[in-house]
Write a structure and sequence with these properties.
CATH class: Mainly Alpha
Strand content: under 5%
Largest sheet: none
CATH superfamily: Cytochrome c-like domain
Helix content: 55-70%
Number of domains: 1
Distance between the termini: 38 Å
Radius of gyration: 14 Å
Number of strands: 0
Order of helices and strands: HHHHH
């Protein structure tokens, strides 16, 4: 019961962060596509996948350097709930196809961390 409640709290906080954090970024200034993808990666993805691709825990996959097509397809599957992982489903729920492509390109072109 406690684990289920904690899981719901994590999802709610994650969704709130994505909805309010990312919407504020685009309103305050015009940013290039690469800057927007980098900001999303830093402020949203690195919470689990880690900064500079240093994973937070062993359950989180390494994503820097993966193929762009694979990353984009995976993110779309999470968004469309073809793959179920509550945290990922919530994080990518509001991303457009264009944003997913930009984020996938950012990670595909990234360098692996130490």
């Amino acid at each position: 019961m406690i684990e289920r409640t904690l899981s719901r709290i994590v999802v709610i906080y994650s969704l709130s962060f994505v909805m309010f954090g990312l919407s504020g970024c685009s309103v305050l200034s015009k940013k290039t596509e690469a800057e927007t993808a980098a900001n999303t990666a830093y402020y949203v993805c690195s919470g689990c996948h880690g900064p500079d691709n240093v994973r937070v825990n062993f359950m989180t996959p390494t994503i820097i350097g993966q193929k762009k097509g694979y990353l984009a397809a995976t993110l779309r599957d999470y968004r469309d709930k073809k793959r179920i992982e509550p945290l990922m489903n919530g994080v990518v729920a509001s991303l457009s196809d264009h944003e997913i492509e930009s984020l996938a390109a950012y990670y595909a072109n990234g360098k692996r961390g130490n």
